[in-house]
Specification:
102 residues
Length: 102
C-alpha cells in the first residue's frame, strides 16, 4: 500500500468528523491530526500507547496496532478506527467522551 493510498483512506475515514457543509476541498492530514491531538493522543502516544497504537503521527496510524491495521483502504466501515469511534467495536473511543466526534 502506498503512502498516498493510505493517506486517502485515513482522510476518507475521518472526513465525516471534520468536513464542513459546502466544503470543496477534501480533508488533509493536518485536519485529521487536529482531531487525533484533541481526542486521541492523550493515550495513544509514547511508550504506553495501548497495543502500540500511536495516533500522534501519520506513520503511527499507518502502522496500526499490535492487533493489526486500524484503517482499511477504501472500506471505512471495516476500519477499526472508525468502528471504535462509532461505538461499534469495544471498547469505544474515546473512553472519556461520546462515541461520535463532533
Amino acid at each position: 500500500m502506498t503512502k498516498r493510498t493510505l493517506f486517502f483512506t485515513i482522510t476518507l475515514c475521518l472526513g465525516f468528523c471534520i468536513s464542513e457543509a459546502g466544503a470543496e476541498q477534501p480533508p488533509t492530514w493536518n485536519d485529521a491530526a487536529k482531531i487525533f491531538q484533541s481526542r486521541c493522543v492523550i493515550c495513544h502516544q509514547g511508550f504506553a500507547a495501548p497495543n502500540g497504537l500511536h495516533l500522534d503521527t501519520f506513520e503511527g496510524v499507518r502502522s496500526g496496532s499490535e492487533n493489526g491495521p486500524v484503517v482499511v483502504p477504501g472500506k471505512p466501515g471495516e476500519s477499526e478506527l472508525i468502528r471504535r469511534v462509532r461505538g461499534q467495536s469495544l471498547p469505544r473511543m474515546p473512553l472519556t467522551g461520546p462515541p461520535w466526534l463532533s
